Amino acid sequence: MHFPFKEFGEKVDVFHSDLLTKLHVGINILAPDSTILFASSTMEQWHADQCPLRGKKCFQVYHQRSQPYENCPSLRALREGKPCRENIPWIKDGKIAGWLEVHSFPHFDESGKVNAVVECVRNITAESQRYEDDLIQTANVLVVKLDSQGNVLFVNRAFETLTGYTNADLVGKNWFETLIPKNRYPEVWREFNRAKAGEFSMHYENPIQTKSGEERFISWNNRPHHTVDGAVAGTISFGIDITDHKRLETNLAEIERRYEHLVRATRGFIFTVFVSNGHPTHTVYYPGMAEVTGYSQAECEADSDLWLRMVKKEDQPIVLNQIQQILGGMEPQPIEHQIVHKDGSPRWIRNTSIPNRNALGTLISYDGLIVDITQLKKTELELKAARNAAEAANQSKSAFLAAISHEIRTPMNGIIGMGGLLLQTELTPEQRDFVETMRNSGEGLLNIINEVLDFSKIEAGKFRLELTDFDLHTAIATPIDLLAGNAHDKGLDLAAVIEPGVPTHVHGDPGRLWQILNNLIGNAVKFADSGEVVLTVSLEKQDAAETILRFEVRDTGIGISDANLERLFQPFSQLNSSTTRKFGGTGLGLVISKQLVEMMGGHLEVRSVPGKGAAFSFTAHFGRVSGALPFSETLAPLNLHGLRLLVVDDHEGFRNALSRQLESIGAITTVSASVPEALKLLEQSKEASPGFNLALIDLIMPVMDGLSLVEFLKKHPLWTSMPVILMLPVTHRHLAREMEQKGVAACVVKPPKIQVLHDAIQTVLHHASLSTGAAETDRPPSARDATPPPARLPLQGARVLVAEDNIINQKVLLNQLGKLGCSADAVANGLEAIEAQNRRYDAILMDCQMPELDGYEATTEIRRKNLGKPRVPIIALTAHTLEGDRERCLLAGMDDYLSKPIRLDTLQKTLARWISSK
């Protein structure tokens, strides 16, 4: 059955025809062979050059083709029997005049066969053009259209944004002359000609110059664009800015080059092992392998087992274990092992492997870095040999120092011990002076020995601090007391100031703190000819566990130049190293002090102005002692609240220090630098009410001394009743009675301790008989310069055995024991000591170094023989002072330890500790 096109055409009346025309919709009816059976007026208007349309084939009308167009929607509707839609070009006069949207609907006869197709056609030329323009302008890619001569026809907005050129700036201008760098012109022209020849250039890269002169790299896809007749009209290019990518590529290439250079510089190479399903598949080696192994990359990659065969057999388990760790998901540690070079020589390498995992955590490969450390291993062996040699030399040095210490300390014990005993006898002043000189020289030599040994122990790393709770103020006062005489002999005032907040007790090493202070104060006294030396102690910081204190020793001496400051802490260095130098010493004192301070967690520093003195200061860390109060709080019971004192002393630092200490216990002080100034103050005080309650006056002052002021006061009716306390140098303490006979209420020795001074003030004001101040000032001259004998009662009648091979030391010890009231016998070696101990002694003094049988062996044998019997105390006598000596004595069965030379007071305290406790 034919499609009733006549009836259909008649039904399309004038109204519907006008409506379809206004909507730009045309109607065609096609026969099954694609012949046009009916065409609306709109269709005929669009194809006026081909009218009449009826009877023509659709592909002849739409596509101007002689054969059917496979993608023609109407032919597809006829063929497939279902509606189809397609946008097709509108060809007019041999050119594309626009675009048509064709909807094709099949029509079926009574048997269900397609007997016609109805086409609804819409002109979408304007819409298509707008869409294309919008797409090009809004795209993120660069779009450039050139004519056949390379002149710009069009650029889109993305291009304008990137380059700074607008479309108006470039249209009509030559692309190459305007935007391409001259050195890149030939290669870009070559690509342009390829596109003109009909070829496509995919991902072609070339630079362009922006309006500002910047060079940007673009990746282009170039293709030709044609006229309707097929001729090449020019090129159209789509580009992506890859400048940042190119820079990153360049940087990565540079990094890779440097990395490869670095790896080669370390005599190494890199490899990557690829992994699939938990098993290695293949390995890639990078440059540098041949230098390390002798094998090329190709050799190793061709033979997967070659690397493992290179590893020495005894090291293969280490390498295999590393591989298993990686494959098992672990992060392996670097390993060191040996390989055999291609030439047969062994090489040490360090093998570091790093796993690589994907986003799911699956191992996909691991990278390895191999570094040749053969030379490093060789150096390590050499260093180890050198270290062993150094340790052996250090042990030899320690043994030598121990021997030297023993050999020197043994005669020193005789010199110092006999000197001390001799001072206990009746001597003429000249004899006493000789003995004191001898003993002081011995003490000086002993100090040098101790410095050398301390320095050696510190350098050898064998020095240890002995930590204990101790009275800080005793540790501070001891060096002041010991050096007071030397200071007075040089016309110096010596003082100590303890600032508020400093605790009474701390946890640390009191002996080493004393050593530091003694060294610094001793140096200050040594290098000052006039003025004063002042020690100031202040609290730097304190928390629940730790106390940090600052110590400063300031003097008014010769000072130190900047050039000499650099050599100050160098061992065995004197600021004046000539043989005619004024000041002696080893140059080790400051070095040892600095090292001790650092062991205490602090830092020693110095400030100095040549000719005006120096100030040495250091911090030290101490443990905090539970219940320890600040020193200022312990002075509360010594309250002198409201007491008005006149302090007269010519040294500013000393009088200010003394004034601050007195004010800390409540006194009101007025200071004066001389007798004339004191008289003026006294004159001015006539009008004051009340005036001064007491005067504290230094004996030794220029122009008029303190005694002259006392005599003046005693003759003046206003001040004759005012009590006066006179401060005497340590060397003038014997004048105390004479001064009191001349009207002085009391005397104290400089520098006075605050407790002693308080007691003296209380004695004067209340006429109380407190022993502290009097005992210090009333000692007779005969006892002043000698070592005071210790209390003898606890040791009276004690029996002591002395085991000592040196006859002189036997004499010293027997005499010292006699002074202590002991009954003593002496033997010359360990064998005699074993036999003699059967006579039941209260204690044994056992020398460690003796012939035939030394003290260690003798002690061990005595302990063995007396097992189960009452234990007799055995006290070691040794000239060794190196680390481990005390421990060795105790390990041998000894109970205590005395280092030579042995002082009488130390001997008494040690024996009393063991004998009185029986």
Explain what the structure shows:
- The protein is of the alpha/beta class.
- The radius of gyration is 55 Å and the shape is elongated.
- The relative contact order is 0.04.
Précis, in short:
With 918 residues, the protein is an alpha/beta fold.
Shape: elongated
**Poorly predicted ranges:** 8-16, 572-586, 768-792
Helix content: 40-55%
Beta-strand share of residues: 25-35%
Oligomer: single chain
Count of individual helical segments? 34
Cα gyration radius (Å): 55 Å
How many β strands by DSSP? 32
Structural class call reads alpha/beta
> What's the story with the biggest beta sheet?
7 strands, mixed
End-to-end span in angstroms?
Answer: 145 Å
Average pLDDT number: 79
Annotation keywords:
7-stranded mixed β-sheet, alpha/beta, 5-stranded antiparallel β-sheet, 918 residues, elongated
How would you summarize the topology of this molecule?
Blueprint lengths: L4 H7 L2 H9 L2 E6 L5 E4 L1 H6 L11 H5 L10 H8 L3 E9 L2 E14 L5 E10 L1 H14 L3 E6 L4 E4 L1 H7 L3 H4 L4 H5 L5 H12 L4 E9 L5 E12 L5 E10 L1 H23 L2 E9 L2 E7 L3 H5 L3 H6 L3 H5 L5 H12 L7 E6 L5 E12 L5 E10 L1 H49 L6 H31 L8 E4 H18 L2 E7 L6 E4 L1 H17 L4 E12 L3 E10 L6 H4 L23 H11 L4 E6 L3 E12 L6 H4 L9 E5 L3 H12 L4 E5 L2 H10 L9 E5 L7 H10 L8 E5 L7 H6 L4 E4 L4 H13 L4 H7 L3 H4 L14 E5 L3 H13 L3 E5 L2 H7 L6 E5 L7 H11 L8 E5 L6 H7 L4 E4 L4 H12 L3
Parallel strand pairs: 17-19, 23-24, 23-25, 25-26, 26-27, 28-29, 28-30, 30-31, 31-32
Antiparallel strand pairs: 1-2, 1-5, 3-4, 4-5, 6-7, 6-10, 8-9, 9-10, 11-12, 11-15, 13-14, 14-15, 16-18, 18-22, 19-20, 20-22, 21-22
Helix pairs in contact: 16-17, 16-30, 17-21, 18-19, 19-21, 27-28, 31-32
